[in-house]
Write a structure and sequence with these properties.
elongated, alpha+beta, 10 strands, four-stranded antiparallel beta sheet, three-stranded antiparallel beta sheet
Length: about 190
C-alpha cells in the first residue's frame, strides 16, 4: 500500500477529476448523446498527460548535518538540510519526519531550484524526553504542474539519535562542620 501510495497516488484534484469523468460518462450513456462523451474522454486524457508529466523523479541530492548521534535531555539542536539539484526543478515539498518527542516535522515548500545551486534549510530539535529516536527519512514530494498526481521519493535515509537523561549534581556527604557546630542548638525534647 505504501509503495502504491508513493508511486501512483492521485491527489484530491486527481480523484475529483476521475469521479467527475465517471459521472459524466454515466450521464452521457443515459442521455445517449455522442457529444457528451467528449467530457469523460477529455478528462481521462488530461489525467493521462498529468501522469506522464509528473512521472519523472526529481534529480536532487540531499544531505543532513548538524546533528550528533548522542544528545542530552533538554538540549536544543539546530539541524541543517542541504539540497543540490542536477537540473532545474520547481514546485516541490521537502519534508523531514521528526518524532513528536523531538518537535514538529520540518516542511519546506521550494518554488524553484536551479541546476548546481545549493539550497539550505535549518530547523530545531528540542530533546524533551530521553530515549532512542529515529529522525527521517528526508522525503521530497512532487507531481505534475496541475496538481492531479503526487509522488514522493526518499532523499536521505533515517538516522538514529540517542537522548541521554539530564545530569544533576548531588552532594552525597554532609559537611562535617554543620554536624559539629550547627547554627542553632537542637531543641531539648520534653519527656
Amino acid at each position: 500500500v505504501a509503495w502504491v501510495r508513493r508511486r501512483r497516488a492521485p491527489s484530491g484534484c486527481g480523484l475529483g477529476l476521475g469521479v467527475g469523468a465517471a459521472g459524466a460518462g454515466g450521464l452521457a450513456r443515459v442521455l445517449g448523446g455522442r457529444p457528451l462523451f467528449i467530457i469523460p474522454y477529455g478528462s481521462l486524457a488530461v489525467r493521462a498527460v498529468a501522469y506522464a508529466v509528473g512521472r519523472r523523479p526529481p534529480s536532487i541530492v540531499g544531505d543532513r548535518s548538524g546533528g550528533r548521534p548522542r544528545m542530552a535531555e533538554g538540549e536544543i539542536i539546530t539541524m541543517e538540510v542541504r539540497l543540490t539539484a542536477e537540473r532545474r526543478l520547481s514546485t516541490f515539498l521537502l519534508e523531514e519526519q521528526v518524532p513528536p518527542a523531538l518537535g514538529e516535522p520540518a516542511r519546506l515548500a521550494v518554488p524553484v531550484i536551479e541546476p548546481g545551486e545549493d539550497l539550505t534549510h535549518t530547523y530545531e530539535l528540542s530533546c524533551r524526553r530521553r530515549g532512542v529516536y529515529e529522525i527521517g527519512p528526508l522525503v521530497v514530494r512532487y507531481g505534475d504542474p496541475l496538481g492531479l498526481t503526487r509522488r514522493e521519493a526518499v532523499i536521505a535515509e533515517p538516522t538514529e539519535v540517542l537522548v541521554h537523561p539530564g545530569v544533576e549534581d548531588v552532594i552525597d556527604r554532609v559537611l562535617t562542620r554543620m554536624v559539629e557546630d550547627p547554627p542553632q542548638p537542637p531543641p531539648i525534647p520534653r519527656p
